[in-house]
Amino acid sequence: MSGISRRKLFGLGAAGVAAAGAGTLAVRSLPGEDATTHAAATSDAVPFYGEHQAGIVTPAQDRLHFVAFDVTTKDRAELVDLLQSWTAAAARMTQGQEAGAFGAVGGVPEAPPDDTGEALGLPASGLTLTIGFGPTLFDERFGLAGRKPKALADLPKFPGDALLPELSGGDLCVQACAHDPQVAVHAIRNLARIGFGRVSVRYSQLGFGRTSSTSRAQATPRNLMGFKDGTANLKLEDTAMLGDHLWVAAEDGADDGADDGADWLTGGSYLVTRKIRMHIETWDRTSLAEQEAIIGRTKGEGAAHGSAKEFDEPDFTRKGPDGESLIADVAHVRLAHPSSHGGVRMLRRGYNFVDGSDGLGRLDAGLFFISYQRDAHRQFVPVQLALARQDVLNEYIKHVSSGLFAVPPGVRDAGDYWGRALFS
């Protein structure tokens, strides 16, 4: 534990509590928007077409329905046709329309409807749909092996991982975010319906209460441990840093070194998902001083110990009256901070989840972590390794699922489709 005992760590918490005051909780995000402009209200539509897919730098909406698919067809043409059909449906649904041209009630009565109907009468609610391609899509089935990006190599096994294979991986993923949970569920349900016979659902996850802000117009939200989450997150206003840390560049290359191997991903990103179950009941019996020492921030204001405000830069050199660091070597904020990893950053947009309770009455709850980055192996992996090896918070959490996906650039117009450059 980097030369500091767990008991000593808890002692540092009290000093941090005394150093900063309490704050208040902002409970609602501001309106959904595309990469550059705010929508007028949470009911409004987010533009679907653009240089980058919506749902990445889009200010995080309130609700999530994430799904990973296994591709069951072995026919490349069928897969392309599915992606074209999905793109057309996504373009419609994100604008508040029904998934198909004839909708839920406008087709032939003897045939299944073009839309499942549960979102009839509901507005677009800021819906965004974002697709990703998993490493397994680049096997021998579709002739894509030579176009697999080098950064799409499997993530390593991290210390303490308790991953469930059935909740991890996937050939394809779709992230649906919206301000209305029924709109997000409707979107995923219709994509699964359209994909019947060509894909099957591997796993899905509902989320609520975003755990990151992706715009400075949004207040920092809280996770189920009660702490503000994602204070140091990348924001859509950080244009230069987005180019450095988020969007894949042409020179990032392919696994075989070919100049044109992964050019299809230029302008895209890499998506990492981790389902992190929290031992809520144990955490709730932990003292406030101990909780704050583990995180390295105050629970009220969210300020790093030794600072007054949430967005004050943590001073990791500052000492307390006893001569020890106010922020312990094993505090979460120190281990995760960009300054501990050569300045690398990620864009996080995770969500809380509660999936009922287990047989002992304990909540099956926690954080569905989502991050976007230019290269997960250079950004996510070093941070997660540090956390897995040293973070005292590991006593209260368990990682049960994991995924890595290449997220293609945006759909330019109605003649384009998700992943077109990959299959060209």
UniProtKB/TrEMBL annotation:
Cofactor binding, note field: Binds 1 heme b (iron(II)-protoporphyrin IX) group non-covalently per subunit.
Predominant localisation class: other
Dyp-type peroxidase C-terminal domain boundaries: 220-411
GO molecular function, one term: heme binding
Superkingdom per UniProt: Bacteria
GO terms for biological process, alphabetical: iron import into cell
Pfam families (alphabetical): Dyp_perox_C, Dyp_perox_N
EC class of the enzyme, as a word: oxidoreductase
Occurrences of domain Dyp-type peroxidase N-terminal (ranges): 53-208
E.C. code: 1.11.1.-
Catalytic activity field: heme b + 2 H(+) = protoporphyrin IX + Fe(2+)
Cofactor: heme b
Entry's localization field: Cell envelope
Described purpose of this protein according to its UniProt entry: Involved in the recovery of exogenous heme iron. Extracts iron from heme while preserving the protoporphyrin ring intact.
Protein's name according to its UniProt entry: Deferrochelatase
Taxon lineage: Bacteria, Bacillati, Actinomycetota, Actinomycetes, Streptosporangiales
